[in-house]
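User: What would this chain look like folded?
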Amino acid sequence: MRFRQIHLDFHTSELIPGIGEAFDKAHWQRTLQEAAVDSITCFSVCHHGWSYHPTEVGVMHPQLKFNLLRAQLDACHEIGIKVPIYLTAGVNSRVAEEHPEWREVMADGRLGGWASSPLQPGFRKLCFNTPYLDYLCRLIEEAVTLFPDHDGVFLDIINQGECCCTHCLRDMLREGYNPELPEDRRRFADRVLEKYYQRTTAAVRSRDASARVFHNSGHISPGWLDRLQYFSHLELESLPTGGWGYDHFPQSAAFAAKTGLEYLGMTGKFHSTWGEFGGLKHPNALRYECSAMLALGSHCSIGDQLHPSGKLDESTYRVIGEAYREVRDKEPFCRDARRVAEVAILPQEAFAEVTGNGGVRDGDTGCARLLLEAHIPFDILAPEMDFMAYRMLILPDALPVSPALRTRLSAFIAKGGKLVLSGEGGVNAGLGLGAELGELDESNPNYLLPAPEFAPEFCSTPFVMYDRCYRLRVTSGKSLGRVYDSYFNRDFRHFCSHQHAPNQPEDSGFDAGVMTDSVLYFAHPVFTLYRQTGAVVLRQFVTRALESFLGPDRLIRTNLPSMARLTVTEQENRRIVHLLYANLVTRGGGIPGSPWLGRPVEVIEELLPLHDVECAVRVERPVKSVTLEPGGTELPFTLENGVCRFRVESFRCHQMVALNY
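Assistant: Here's the prediction, encoded as structure tokens.
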């Protein structure tokens, strides 16, 4: 897989004239080479439903006069640039207009897609349980036949809603599903989606059994590991300014790294998100985003949108080039590098069937964000994955434990593993908390006074917790602190001040959590609360408990500030510490009514240096030298009892430090 990829959107209305008329091979080649691009995904079929080459299955764009995809592909191959080809799958507005009976229909009668009304602009979602799937497979087979020299196929918008179109209603009733039950609609949709994967993957590989294929759903969930058999690699769509935020990609990569598949991160050059013409983010933002991908074991992809004229935008590729020339220099230290982590998260998201619905949960996000800010490298696991090799396993907040999982967790603890539970997460497992666990506290909010060893330096009084907790009395473990109830819950009968009543002077008699040699339990859903409130006092309390639980023999310790990021990777002959830092600023107030700019945006502009960064890294092999890469500048270091210590005088944005064996 190439490291410096472009995903070139080209969703183009039939009302725009002169499609591709400004395409110039020499300009195309020069622009990509100067920007250090080595792969670019180009379009066969777009969301509007138009093909960008002659076709007997689909319809060529009415304003296009030549085979644009062939011209793009030949121009790239001449200079060694790969070209995967793109086909829309889940939406196709032209087909939806010609075959409204193929539209996806929700249980309440709404039509699926960007536009639920015929009077709204936006793309129309199609149902994979209709003859549309046959049509889509013919489009794919034609594309791989016309372009046998393609470098992979990218299929987009891969999801199936709880569709109640006539085809789905008929088949649900015939197969014993009850369309009136949401869970049955979801189960049937999963079956339809499985058929989609089987048939479209076979279509992609109808001419070449080893053809690369990726099915884009916008997110790779730990809850459907079995579907990855239909993928050759993963592309992790995560545009920080497009609604994902800067802490989304680290979570996606933490799971992708465990799948055994190569993966790339997909950001965008846009100030906002897909579909933005003329939007540019600052070059420093792309430098940071690509550096973060490398630090997380990923290859890089930057989303762009080609002007209907077919000419690449010079400003865009000037910005991209600043990032990709750096990536090119760093590649030798990232190729075939594996992530190193001693902590794993078993996320709520992976248990969607048990917990009711899919999607990333606040507890998962809060846990990942807290570990990122504490500089504790971690992986995210699917339920089927082995967690025995990790020192610590976290089950955030609301994860139920089945008998089978309880057996595995017991074996993990017996082997010396450390288990972190919180809120409802794992409380039904009976894994020896060292405390008596009662019912949920009725006080909401309540207050927490940490035990002195877990208390932030600036906190010596109870701080507010905006949720209920379990009544916990420590018996044989170590208490994390005490819970204080408020005087009363706020309602029309009694309230105090603007938000909630203060804490009572005496504690409730219950503990905020407990730590034993093998289990750390927080009585509150602390990870969800951190995602929702971002309270520093809460993060520092939880972090101190986690660090104490892990003990002094940690993979890495550092004095980086919380906004900096740190990862560890390893190649055959070296361990590499990645130091990352960018100062994020929230700007803009949102454009009323805008689907993509209705909120402020996190922006990176200046990249300020960090100074005097100290690291202590546990290693299993003797270290011969420590070098700043790329460049090879040697650093003084000490090696004692398997811990390598070094100091980086200063760095800006991204610094790789190689511990060479």
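The radius of gyration is 27 Å. If you want, I can go into more detail on any region.
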